[in-house]
Amino acid sequence: MSFMNSYKHLEKLCGEIMRDERRVSAYIDEMTCTPFGPSLVAGWNNDLKKLKHYRHIRNLIAHEPDCSEESLCVPSDAVWIENFCTRILNLSDPLSLYRRALAEQRKAQAKRIPQPQDLDFENAVRTNENFNKSSANKNNGNKAAKRCMFCSRIYRCSDIDIDAYSVSFFY
What we know:
It is a single chain. By secondary structure, the chain is mainly alpha-helical. Helix content is 57%, strand content 2%. Strand 1 and strand 2 form a beta hairpin. It is elongated, with a radius of gyration of 29 Å.
């Protein structure tokens, strides 16, 4: 398949997935404006560089006199573009891989961060009867001591104001 036919195929696919009449340029712009793309997707920068290069070659062929496929392209250029089209169809192109990696990161974060509906506010504060005697002595025997879940400091009831939000930070 010739370079221009392969590029037209790429333009059609990019136009459909990006829903933008700029097609390949819209795909390139999305890659350029995507934060952390290179760190989340292997080969991101190489694909971006190739897409920009092939868009430039296409523009030269289409708009410059005396420029032709034969003088600017080698057969491997059309093969790379067709392979990229296949990657888009298989959802293994850079933007698809980025979205997948981002979704996996969010999923992992959601598992680590307790949501308000998951917190057990009734048992979030425990009295110092659950602590050993040395921690009870630090609090001069106050029954309503609490331990901060972040820094493990022990607080007395008079030191803090307990409401539904702050209770979640104590155990």
